[in-house]
Specification:
Elements (H helix, E strand, L loop, with lengths): L1 E6 L7 E4 H5 L3 H6 L3 E4 L6 E4 L4 E4 L5 H5 L6 E8 L4 E10 L12 E7 L7 E3 L13 E6 L5 E7 L5 E7 L10 E10 L6 E11 L7 E2 L3 E7 L7 E4 L2 E2 L9 E5 L13 E3 L5 E4 L10 E10 L6 E11 L7 E7 L3 E2 L7 E8 L9 E4 L6 E7 L2 E6 L10 E10 L6 E11 L7 E2 L3 E7 L7 E4 L2 E2 L9 E5 L13 E3 L5 E4 L10 E10 L6 E11 L7 E4 L7 E7 L7 E4 L1 E3 L10 E4 L8 E3 L5 E4 L10 E8 L7 E11 L6 H5 L6 H19 L1
Parallel strand pairs: 1-7, 8-14, 16-23, 25-31, 33-40, 42-49
Antiparallel strand pairs: 2-5, 3-6, 4-5, 6-7, 9-12, 10-13, 11-12, 13-14, 15-18, 17-21, 19-22, 20-21, 22-23, 24-26, 26-29, 27-30, 28-29, 30-31, 32-35, 34-38, 36-39, 37-38, 39-40, 41-44, 43-47, 45-48, 46-47, 48-49
Length: 676
């Protein structure tokens, strides 16, 4: 809180204080932090020179117009700066300048006094008025020299000096019927200013006892907001005279050019002297009223006395606190550190004492707390971690409660939005997935769709998918598959061959668009489904295409005699690799048969002597759909001296590199089938 003072009547543009120096800031930072001035009263009296960092007057100040007769005159300002958000309170005291001379309500005062008045009789005079305050207000009064009269100054309860003319020497109306005096009011300024009034005193006969108020100065305490018509007091006035000279009438004593405000709030019964309220009294508008009453008898000449009553109001708790949201930073990042200022809140209660003491409260379960900045100003700061995924915003209700009895409360609710930061990595629904695809499918065939979610929002939740190369295949995995980066659908890049690759591990990465980007991975096992795309291959007997295999058997071979065995393999697997052997049908009936599963060719019936060679076509067919086949031509020649060498007949010829590969394929097929 910064305190400055400035005399009234300074020229606009005059410097009030060096803000940059007093705030401990560099001048060039004021504009960058968007320093701005907020007047609490709504009127603009000051401005900020951002180039020089000083507070300047925007208009000429008149202390009397701003604060009236208040002993202090302060203007309250607020300085708001951003990045970070800060609020500073500035209080400027407006100093009084002796720019007003004392002035009497009337330029001429006419008084009457009976000639029988005793020395010491007092004649009250009207008080001069000076709008200035303190030492610049009225300091004393002076009366022109007189043989019969002197000046006496009394001090009222509120500090106002009241002049009275005191009779020092007995009067003789027959010698001097009228006395002319000059009353001068002097203030305490430098230089001293003064005002005068002519006092004319007429000396009268007869009614020689004025009304007397007992006590002449009294004080009454009254609660504010009492009903209209409430009795304040009844004046106690006595007049020792009798008859009309002792019959007293009451009236308010006011100045013609400045009628007392109390006449609008209080009524006076001219006969009984009862003072009552005639309007609601408000402590916040004025805490006390000074009432001057004139008591005048009906004698001739009439005499009067003066009563002074001070009415002091007792404050009651009739004003609820006011909550002012000066500034709100919304949205706030969810990673804001504890202690981050969210809002600046001001509070005001027009009551006084305990009735004006205000406490601010918010719900305890909220991750925020209130910190007192300075008098009647608070900062709302974070008191714990924020998580947008749990709460995207908060309805914050600030409750202000005063200390009066009964208490009065006010609440204000505002919404604070939590801004997202990229603090959550995307997650797949499953870290491992399984997919199947038929071999020989066209490039671009959809294989599988992975799915991931991200609890963040906006760009932090915008996901893109990609395939990582794990190096498990000889060829990069990206040559086999691609992924739609938007929806996570995996497609083939080319036709797959089950006999070459039976299973693929496709590592998929999902990455959000935050900064920095977060990611996670999952693995999709893609199994290639076999298709019957390989015909059986006859391993034994191995004969060139278009040739026949020649085999001799004894003429006397009996039924069941093993002639030879056909050995075939199929690169496919499962049903597609189940082979069956059969003889192609011919016009003649052959004395041989082939075992369907083993491929063994045996003698089915006894052979005749001098039997001609027999030509057999053995067909090997797989179990796929559609079925594929291969065939071999075998020529069997019966001979008398032929002896079957079973070992030789079953021996396979020396393997060639191609036969070795076929055997390897057969082993791989059997192992794959077992694994599946």
């Amino acid at each position: 809180q910064l305190l400055y003072s400035v005399p009234e009547d300074r020229e606009p543009g005059s410097s009030v204080g060096d803000l940059a120096k007093d705030l401990g800031l560099e001048v060039r930072s004021l504009a960058a932090r968007n320093l701005r001035l907020v007047s609490e009263g709504g009127q603009r009296h000051f401005q900020v020179d951002l180039a020089a960092g000083v507070l300047l007057l925007d208009s000429r100040l008149d202390r009397e117009a701003l604060c009236g007769q208040s002993p202090t005159c302060s203007l309250h300002l607020q300085l708001v700066m951003e990045n970070p958000l800060q609020l500073h309170r500035v209080e400027v005291d407006v100093l009084d300048v002796n720019d007003n001379a004392p002035q009497f309500p009337k330029p001429e005062v006419v008084l009457e006094i009976t000639e029988v008045a005793n020395p010491g009789t007092r004649l009250p005079l009207e008080v001069a008025e000076d709008p200035d305050m303190g030492s610049n207000s009225i300091s004393t009064y002076e009366l022109s020299p007189s043989e019969h009269f002197a000046l006496s100054i009394n001090v009222r309860g509120d500090g106002v000096k009241m002049p009275e003319i005191v009779l020092e020497k007995a009067l003789d109306r027959e010698k001097v019927a009228v006395h002319h005096l000059t009353l001068t009011a002097l203030d305490g300024g430098n230089p001293v200013k003064s005002g005068t009034a002519r006092v004319t005193i007429h000396v009268l006969d007869a009614n020689d006892n004025p009304p007397v108020c007992d006590p002449p100065i009294s004080k009454v305490h009254l609660e504010e907001n009492v009903p209209v018509g409430t009795l304040v007091t009844k004046l106690n006035v006595t007049d020792l005279d009798e008859g009309p000279n002792g019959d007293v009438e009451y009236s308010f004593k006011t100045s013609n050019n400045a009628p007392g405000k109390f006449t609008k709030l209080f009524s006076l019964d001219p006969r009984t002297g009862e003072i009552r309220t005639k309007a609601l009294l408000d402590y916040e508008e004025s805490s006390a009223y000074e009432i001057a009453v004139r008591a005048r008898d009906k004698g001739s000449p009439a005499m009067e006395g003066h009563c002074h009553l001070r009415v002091e109001l007792i404050d009651i708790n009739d004003n609820s606190p006011e909550i002012m949201l000066t500034s709100l930073s919304s949205p706030v990042q969810e990673d804001a550190t504890p202690g981050t200022v969210i809002a600046l809140i001001g509070v005001k209660d027009n009551d006084s004492g305990d009735n004006g003491q205000v406490r601010l409260q918010i719900a305890k379960e909220l991750p925020f707390k209130l910190v007192s900045s300075f008098k009647e100003h608070f900062s709302l700061v974070t008191n714990g971690p924020l998580d947008r995924e749990k709460a995207s915003g908060y309805n914050i209700t600030v409750r202000a409660v005063d200390s009066g009895s009964p208490q009065r409360a006010t609440q204000k609710t505002f919404y604070l939005r939590i801004a997202d930061v990229n603090d959550n990595a995307p997650n797949f629904s499953s870290p491992f997935d399984t997919a199947h695809v038929q071999e020989n499918s066209f490039p671009g065939t959809s294989v599988f769709s992975v799915s991931a979610s991200d609890p963040d929002e906006g760009s932090n939740a915008k996901l893109s998918y990609s395939i990582l190369d794990n190096g498990m295949q000889d060829v990069p995995i990206s040559t086999y598959f691609r992924i739609d980066q938007d929806n996570g659908t995996i497609y083939t890049m080319r036709a797959l061959d089950y006999e070459q690759d039976k299973v693929f591990q496709v590592p998929v990465e999902v990455k959000d668009a935050g900064s920095p980007a977060l990611s996670s991975t999952a693995v999709v096992h893609v199994f290639v489904l076999d298709e019957n795309d390989n015909a059986p291959t006859i391993v034994y007997p191995s004969v060139p295409k278009g040739s026949a295999f020649h085999q001799t058997i004894p003429v006397l071979a009996e039924p069941g005699y093993l002639v030879t065995k056909i050995v075939a393999v199929d690169a496919d697997s499962g049903h597609n690799a189940w082979l069956s052997y059969q003889l192609q049908e011919t016009a003649e009936v052959l004395p041989f048969q082939v075992e369907r599963r083993s491929g063994e060719i045996r003698v089915a019936q006894a052979l005749r002597e001098s039997e001609d060679p027999h030509r057999l076509v053995v067909e090997v067919r797989d179990n796929g759909t559609p079925s594929l086949s291969a065939s071999v031509v075998i020529v069997i020649s019966p001979e008398e001296n032929s002896v079957q060498d079973f070992a030789k007949s079953l021996d396979l010829p020396k393997s060639s590199p191609q036969d070795t590969n076929l055997t390897l394929y057969l082993i791989i097929s059997l192992v794959s089938i077992s694994l599946v």
